[in-house]
Every structure is written in structure tokens, then in C-alpha cells.
Amino acid sequence: MSEQVLLYDTTLRDGMQGEGMSLSVEEKVRVAHALDSLGVHLIEAGFPSSNPKEEALFGMLADESFEHAEVAAFGMTRRRGVRAEEDDALRLLASSFAPVCTLVGKTWALHLEKVTKVDAGENLAMIEESVAFLRTRGKRVIYDAEHFFDGFRQDADYALRCLRAAVAGGAENVTLCDTNGSSLPAQVAEATARVVAELGHAVAVGIHTHDDAGCGVANSIVAVERGARLVQGTMNGYGERCGNANLVSILPALQLKLGYECVTADQLARLTETSHLVDEICNVAPNPNQPYVGKNAFAHKGGMHVAGIVRDARTFEHMDPAEVGNDRDLLISELSGKGTVQARAEQRGVQLDEEAAARVVERVKQLEHRGFQFEAADGSFDLLIRKETGDYEPLFRLEAWRAIVEKREDGRVMTEATIKIWVEGERYIRTAEGNGPVNALDRALRSAIGETYPHLRDIELVNFKVRILDETKGTGAITRVLLDASDGTDTWGSIGVSENIIEASWEALVDSLEAGMLPRRAEHSHRPATAAGS
Ligand SMILES: [Zn+2]
User: With contact defined as beta carbons under 8 Å apart, do 351 and 385 qualify?
Assistant: First the structure.
């Protein structure tokens, strides 16, 4: 049997340090579910209650159920001169619902001297007592040894004593951190081998690297080869400066090239989909050249390659793209297979026969060609399936809409939208003002159909993301709008694509309301039958 390596994802904490990264609480929960379905073992959510947003996140996560991922809360060793049980931050960690706590502490004498001004002995006590306190509160503890490799190079004995202190406190894992990203693979290999030799009988060892020297992935891999059995990293390598170690590259390397067991084959086949979904949620354009999951990762150009691939794919490909859910086809998508489409439809309670599934696949390919991406637009995808099965009824018929944006002399910007639509044979004309054209259209539309569909009042647009595609074409650029909506229970995404940003937003808006009405309308359409029988 192959040995297991645990995946520890820190996208929601370390990944959020990256430039321009910011996720709402709902988006973080969506990322957590995506990680869970990929088979990630531990999801580091952040510091419990360090601010109201984190408090809300932990509150929400406590109520979520995951297939097998566990949530880890993150915190620091106690402050100097305070008993662990009296340290407010540690007490908060202890009271969080998370079964696992990850504690970070100092390992490097340089940091103790220059930054924290804590003496070496006190630092060891801080580590041991903090870990021990969380253990008495029933937590499993991972100890993150900050700047471990720098510390090891300066004073290996002290760096090891810090780890021993964590072990003495009861940590189940000590994770060696290359916090500054300064190390090269041979250095990581040597230090990790030493830790495993000296402490491996008493504790599991983990690795946490950064990509400052372009070695984040390589450093994680060599650490595993030297005995580390937990890898911390982020999706797509998000993180401050040059990023964290990229779990999307580490996972297939460990599993397919080195034979470690991390996730199941089915979960691994979701890698491309998950990587793109998380990109979409974070509003990051997927890197077409990203190893394993990029659009170009297995795209071939030029006669000789293509001929070679046709004869035997191994001649020009380092692995089978299907194993990570990627495709040789330039139009890659999680939806590109009939089986996947059928499975998805079934999840949504729609039966799709082979023929309808093939039509959905075709339609998705056409739309992707125009710039659609359904990974983060599950609401629009639901509608698309229903359109192919004839199981779709629009909420209304559009006659026209118009949006006016006017800037006045005093600097104020006024927006007004008018819509003309038909609902159940009746014509509605409504005008509304808003803080922008999309908001004004949304209000006008809701005022027109809100009476017919009262559930619309519960639906809130929680997120609006715009991306310009094909920037190189200048005026020919198209705009993709992704909207997230929520009714307080469910959250779903919708998409619109157009050369005109307001039209793209309108498409996404209509999809988001129609998708939000799907379950209610299903109930609604069943009701008359029941009523007739009673
Ligand atoms: Zn880090």
C-alpha cells in the first residue's frame, strides 16, 4: 500500500495575503466546499474572531457539513509573560468549533533578537505551553515552525529544540515553514531529513513553502521524499509576494509521479475544475500555461507533435490529461463530457437522456467559445440544462429595456432604467433609479415581476464581477459578468457575456433571478394539482 500524504489548504488564510485577494464570507464557504470535493484533508479557515468577517465565517463553517475535510483554525503561540490559559487569542482558538488548531511560533534566533525581543528559553516555553493548553481543550494541534529553514541554517540545534517543545506540548504534527521562500530544494531536503530522523518517531512532519525562489512546489516535493507527510499550500499558488506552494501542481506530482496516496482518482480528476472554480470565485483569470490544469497544458501545435500524439500520447505528453480532469481539446471544461453533464443534471433533479446530454455538451462548447465559463455559474448551467430538456419557462418576455446614465454639473451621476416586459399575457412598464445601470435595471425588473413572484424579494445579489476577455483585441473585447445571488439558504452563480457590459450584466441578472426561482417555481407548479385534488 502506498503511503498517505495529507493536503492542508491555506488558500483562505495565507492565500488571502496575495495582492488583490478578497473574498466574502459566502465565497469562502464556496471555496471550502470546492476543496472538500477535491479531497483536501484540512482547510485552514483563518483566525477565529480576529474581526467580524472571520467571526461570521467560523459561524457559517460550523454549520456546514463537509464530506471529509476538517477545518483548522489558525493562531499564534501565547504572548510573552502571559499564561497560555489567560491569552485572549488562544482562548478564542480553544473555543472555536474547529477540531484542529494550527499554531505558528518562532524558530529563528534572528527573529527573536530583532523582531519579538523574546529570549530563546521563553520562546520554548511559549511554544510548549500554548500547544499543551489547546490539547487540554481537546484540540488536535499542528505546530507551524515559522522561518524554520532560515533558523535551521543559523542554529540547527535551537530550531530542533523549538520543534521538540511543540512535541512535548502534544502537537500531532510539526510543519516546517520556509516563510521567506529563501530555501532551495537541497537545503529543504537536508533539513527535513534531519527532523524526520530525530523526531519522526514522535510526531508527523509537514512542509509549508513559498515561491520566492521559484521553488515552492519543488521544495514541497523534496520534503515529502524526505519523510514529510503533510503539505500546506494554496490553490493555484495564491499568496503574498510570489505566492505559496501551489497545491494544484503538488497534488498530481505526489500522486501520479511519486505514487503517494493523497486523494481518490475521482477526486484528482476534479483538479482542473476545482482550480478554475476557485480562480473564478477569486476573480482571477485562470493562467492558460498553469501546469496540469492550464488550457495550454496539453494543447499541441505543429504537425510532428500532433502526429506523435495520434500514434501514442506518451510521445509528447508527460501524463494523461484526463487524470487531472484536463483535456487535449482546446475547449476544456468540466462539462465537456456527457457523463458529467448527466451526473450534474441528476444532482439538480433533472433526468437527461444521452441525446439531451450531447446537446448540452455541444451548447456548452459553443458558449465557451464565445467566452462563457460555467464553473462558477451553476445557476446559468441549471437553466441551460432545462432549456435543452424543454423544462424551462422564462419568468417574463422582454419587449425592451433602456438604461440612462447622466452626469450633472454638480458632479452627481444619475442612473435610470426603464423596462417593458410581458408576464402571463400582461404588459408591464416600469422605471427605476439606481446607483448604476445594473442596479436600476434590477429594481425596475423586480418591481415589474415582484408581485407575480414574491420569492424574488428574498433573492439578493451578493457579488458582481466583471472581466474583460481578449484584451489584445481592443475594441473587439468582450465583457464577462459573473453574478452571485443568495436567498439566505442557497448561493448560486450566473453569467452573461457580451460586447456591451450592460447587456452582459442584464443576461447574468435575468439568469440569476430565474435560477433562484427554480425550486420555488417547481413547488408552485405542483401546487395547483394538489389543490385540485383536495
Ligand atoms: Zn506562509
Answer: no
| Ligand 1 centre distance from Cα of residue 150 (Å) | 14
Cα 336 from Cα 17, distance rounded (Å):
34
Measured in Å, residue 493 CA sits from the centre of ligand 1 at 31
State how far the alpha carbon of 242 is from the alpha carbons of 125, 307, 311, 451, in Å.
33, 38, 39, 52
First to last CA, the chain: 61
- In angstroms, the CA 241 to CA 182 distance is 12
CA distance 440 to 405: 10
Q: Would you tell me how many other CB atoms lie within 10 Å of the CB of residue 308?
A: 16
Report how far ligand 1's centroid is from the alpha carbon of 272 (Å): 24
What is residue 531's predicted lDDT score, i.e. its pLDDT?
33
Residue 130 makes CB contacts below 8 A (sequence gap 6+) with 76, 77, 78, 84, 87, 90, 103, 105, 169
The residues whose Cβ lies within 5 A of ligand 1, an ion, are 14
- C-alpha 422/C-alpha 325 separation (Å) is 43
Sign of CA dihedral 421, 367, 322, 232: negative
pLDDT at residue 98 in the model: 96
Sign of CA dihedral 208, 280, 99, 47: positive
Task: Describe the crossing of helices 156-169 and 185-199 by its angle, rounded to 10 degrees.
Answer: 50
**Length in residues, the chain:** 534
Say how many Å lie between the CA of residue 86 and the centre of ligand 1.
Answer: 27
Q: What is the DSSP letter of 1?
A: -
Q: Which residues of the chain have pLDDT under 70?
A: 1, 50, 300-311, 328-337, 470-476, 519-534
pLDDT score recorded for residue 510: 96
| DSSP bridge partners of 246 | 234
Three-class DSSP category at 205 = strand
CA of 175 to the centre of ligand 1 (A): 11
Buried b (16+ CB within 10 A) or exposed e, 271-292: bbbbbbbbbbbbbbebbeebeb
Please give the single-letter amino acid code of residue 472: T
- Tell me the CA–centroid distance for residue 209 and ligand 1, in Å: 7
| CA of residue 160 to ligand 1 center, whole Å | 19
Please give the full DSSP string across 396-437, using - where no structure is assigned: -EEEEEEEEEEE-TTS-EEEEEEEEEEETTEEEEEEEEESSH
Position 210 scores a pLDDT of 98
